[in-house]
Amino acid sequence: MLTGKQKRFLRSKAHHLNPIFQVGKGGVNENMIKQVGEALEARELLKISILQNCEEDRDTVAQQLSKGTKADVVQIIGNIIVLYKESKENKQIDLP
Predict the structure, then answer these.
(1) 56 with 27: CB under 8 angstroms?
(2) Which segments of the protein form a coiled coil according to its record (predicted)?
(3) Which of 13, 14, 51, 66 falls 20 to 30 Å from 6 in CA-CA distance?
């Protein structure tokens, strides 16, 4: 679990990122979870945008992605989810 201080730090880091994935009408599926997991391993921190035609609410989507990839949800703001997962091979972010 992330502390408040760590979340603030990661939010400031994520501010400049653009969303890499989009969750649309199909919602979250195995393939998407796999791809998000691989992207998290490479980048540690990423944004996912939820399109307006997505049938599930953003909290559900965030929970599914977080559970599937074993990542932490840093923030849900508007239709953007910020996820963080420490990388095994490719560690770039040192948490405070």
Answers:
(1) yes
(2) none
(3) 51
The count of structural domains within the chain is 1
Instruction: Report the candidate in 61, 67, 95, 96 with the shortest Cα–Cα distance to residue 81.
Output: 61
Instruction: Please indicate whether residue 9 or residue 89 has the higher confidence score (pLDDT).
Output: 9
Identify residue 75 by its one-letter amino acid code. Q
Q: Which residue range is the domain that position 47 belongs to? A: 4-84
The CATH number assigned to the domain holding 34 equals 3.30.110.60
Predicted TM-score (pTM) of this structure: 0.92
